Amino acid sequence: MSWVSGPRRHLSRLAEAARIVTVTQPALTGALVTQWINDSRAEELLHWRRRETAARYEIAAKHLAGLNSRGHKAPFTSG
Questions:
Q1: 33: closest CA among 1, 76, 3?
Q2: Where do the domains of the chain lie?
Q3: For 43-58, what is the mean pLDDT?
Q4: Crossing angle, helix 27-38 and helix 41-63, to 10 degrees?
């Protein structure tokens, strides 16, 4: 699953692009993700992804120091 957001003025173009690239999710994928949610692997994967992203952010910040760049250290958060 994925989501996209953007300015309201581009909503129809974004929706059309999403329709073009969207494919039906195979049943096996849904079953696998359901199992991951039920046995807590999904949460473990999310925590791993957050740690990995934070580490990559630190590497990028180090190499881009002094340049006009910006990012979010923890993009995989809710709320």
A1: 1
A2: 26-66
A3: 91
A4: 90
